[in-house]
C-alpha cells in the first residue's frame, strides 16, 4: 500500500482589532519605541477585547482556513488547538472551538508546547492522517497573552500580543503539496527560563499571593535568546536535510515571530537570504503558538511562495521546546 501523504489545504488567521503601539506602551511603563524596536523589531501588537477569548480568536482563524480549504466544519474529523492561554484549564479550548464551528464529528483537544505548539500540532496531525486514523485535521495556534502579561514589567510586557492562525491538513491527492519532514525537541532542564509560575497545582493563586504577579509570564530573556538561535538552527537543518533540500531550494523560511535579531541570526546561520524570510512581528509582537500560524497564512495569502515551492517553518518556546517542518506547497 502506498504511503498516505498529507497536504495543507487551507490557512487562515485572525487578530483582534485593538492596536497597542510602542508609543502607547511608553506611557504605561518606563520604555521607548526606540528601545523596543531596536531590541526586538516590534512596533505594535494586538490586544483582545475584554469578552474576546482565545477560543474566539481560534474560531475566527479556523473559519478562514476552512473557507480556503473549501471544507465544511461538519466534515472536520480532528481539531487540535495549541495554546498556553486556554479559555479555561478544563475543558480544552479545542472543545469550545468545536462547538463554535459546529464541527460535531471532530475529536478535539489542546496541546501545551508554548510557541512551538503549532508545529507540534502539525506533526501530530500529519502522523494521525498518514496512519489512516483521520482523513483531515484542523490545527490552530491561538493565544490571548494579554491576559497573562504583567503590564507593570517592562522587560516582558512589550514583547507579547494576541492572535490566532489555523491550517487544514488532509490526505493529499496526486500532484498536491506535501508536509515532507517534521522535527520536534524538548529540554525540560530549562523550564525556569520562561514560564507562568502560578495558577497551576504547584502554586495555586490564593488571597495571600494574588498581588505577586505569579500568573503572568516570567522570562530570563538573554538565556532564552541563546537557546532559541541554537535550537531553531538545528531543527531547521534537520528538516532541510531530511527533505533533501539545499538552502537555495527554499522559497520562504517562516520562523517563530519573537525577535528580529533571533530571526536574522538564524537566516544567517542557514545561509538563506533575508528577503526569503517572512517577518510580521513588527505588527503583532510575539503571539506564541499563534505566531508561526499567522505568519504562514499571511505569507500564503500575499504570495510569498507559490504552488510547488519548498518552505521551512521553524519555532522555539518555553519548555524549552522547538520544532520545524519542511513543506512542498
Ligand atoms: C528581552 C530582550 C529583548 C532584552 O534585550 P537585551 O538586549 O537582552 O536586554 P537586557 O535584558 O540585557 O536589558 C538591558 C537593559 O534594558 C532594560 N530594559 C528591559 N526592558 C526594557 C524596556 N522595555 N525598555 C527599556 N529598557 C528595558 C533592562 O532593565 C536592562 O537595564 P539595566 O542594564 O539597567 O539592568 C532579549 O533578551 C530577547 O529578545 N530575548 C529573547 C526573548 C524571547 O524571544 N522570548 C520568547 C521566546 S519564545
Mean pLDDT: 97
CATH class of the largest domain: Alpha Beta
Distinct bound molecules:
coenzyme A
How many domains is the backbone divided into? Answer: 2
Strand order, main sheet: write it out.
1-7-6-4-5
- Could you say which structural class the secondary elements and strand pairing correspond to? alpha/beta
Distance between the termini: 24 Å
Which stretches are low in confidence, meaning pLDDT under 50 for 5 or more residues running?
none
Report on this structure.
The chain is of the alpha/beta class and 329 residues long. The model has no long low-confidence stretch (mean pLDDT 97). The protein is built from ten helices and 13 strands. It folds into two domains: 6-177, 3-Layer(aba) Sandwich (Peroxisomal Thiolase, Chain A, domain 1); 179-328, Peroxisomal Thiolase, Chain A, domain 1 (3-Layer(aba) Sandwich), CATH 3.40.47. The strands form four sheets. The protein has a five-stranded mixed beta sheet with strand order 1-7-6-4-5, sandwiched between helices. The protein has helices spanning 22-28, 33-40, 54-69, 93-101, 117-130, 154-157, 221-242, 260-270, 281-284, 291-301; strands at residues 6-14, 18-21, 44-47, 78-82, 107-111, 136-144, 162-171, 178-186, 194-195, 218-219, 250-255, 310-317, 321-328. Bound molecules: coenzyme A. The site of coenzyme A has 20 residues, from helix 2, helix 6, helix 7 and strand 12.
What features would you highlight for this structure?
Peroxisomal Thiolase, Chain A, domain 1, 329 residues, five-stranded mixed beta sheet, alpha/beta, globular, four-stranded mixed beta sheet, 2 domains
Amino acid at each position: 500500500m502506498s504511503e498516505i501523504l498529507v497536504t495543507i489545504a487551507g490557512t487562515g488567521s485572525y487578530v483582534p482589532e485593538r492596536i497597542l503601539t510602542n508609543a502607547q506602551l511608553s506611557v504605561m511603563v518606563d520604555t521607548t519605541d526606540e528601545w523596543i524596536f531596536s531590541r526586538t523589531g516590534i512596533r505594535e501588537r494586538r490586544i483582545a477585547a475584554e469578552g474576546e477569548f482565545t477560543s474566539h480568536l481560534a474560531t475566527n482563524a479556523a473559519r478562514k482556513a476552512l473557507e480556503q480549504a473549501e471544507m465544511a466544519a461538519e466534515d472536520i474529523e480532528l481539531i487540535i488547538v495549541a495554546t498556553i492561554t486556554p479559555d479555561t484549564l478544563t475543558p480544552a479550548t479545542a472543545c469550545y472551538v468545536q462547538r463554535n464551528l459546529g464541527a460535531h464529528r471532530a475529536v478535539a483537544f489542546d496541546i501545551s508546547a508554548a510557541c512551538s505548539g503549532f508545529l507540534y500540532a502539525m506533526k501530530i496531525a500529519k502522523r494521525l492522517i498518514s496512519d489512516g486514523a483521520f482523513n483531515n485535521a484542523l490545527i490552530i495556534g491561538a493565544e490571548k497573552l494579554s491576559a497573562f502579561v504583567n503590564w507593570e514589567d517592562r522587560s516582558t510586557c512589550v514583547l507579547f500580543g494576541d492572535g490566532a492562525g489555523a491550517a487544514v491538513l488532509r490526505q493529499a491527492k496526486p500532484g498536491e503539496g506535501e508536509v515532507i519532514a517534521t522535527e520536534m525537541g524538548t529540554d525540560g532542564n530549562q523550564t525556569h527560563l520562561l514560564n507562568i509560575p502560578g495558577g497551576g497545582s504547584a502554586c495555586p493563586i490564593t488571597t495571600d499571593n494574588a498581588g505577586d504577579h505569579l500568573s503572568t509570564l516570567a522570562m530570563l530573556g538573554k538565556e532564552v535568546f541563546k537557546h532559541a538561535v541554537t535550537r531553531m538552527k538545528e531543527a531547521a537543518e534537520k528538516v532541510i536535510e531530511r527533505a533533501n533540500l539545499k538552502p537555495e531550494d527554499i522559497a520562504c523560511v517562516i520562523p517563530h515571530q519573537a525577535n528580529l535579531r533571533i530571526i536574522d541570526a538564524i537566516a544567517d546561520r542557514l545561509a538563506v537570504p533575508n528577503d526569503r524570510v517572512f517577518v510580521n512581528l513588527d505588527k503583532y509582537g510575539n503571539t506564541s503558538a499563534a505566531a508561526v500560524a499567522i505568519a504562514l497564512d499571511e505569507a500564503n495569502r500575499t504570495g510569498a511562495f507559490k504552488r510547488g515551492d519548498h518552505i521551512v517553518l521553524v519555532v522555539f518556546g518555553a519548555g524549552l521546546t522547538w520544532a520545524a517542518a519542511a513543506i512542498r506547497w
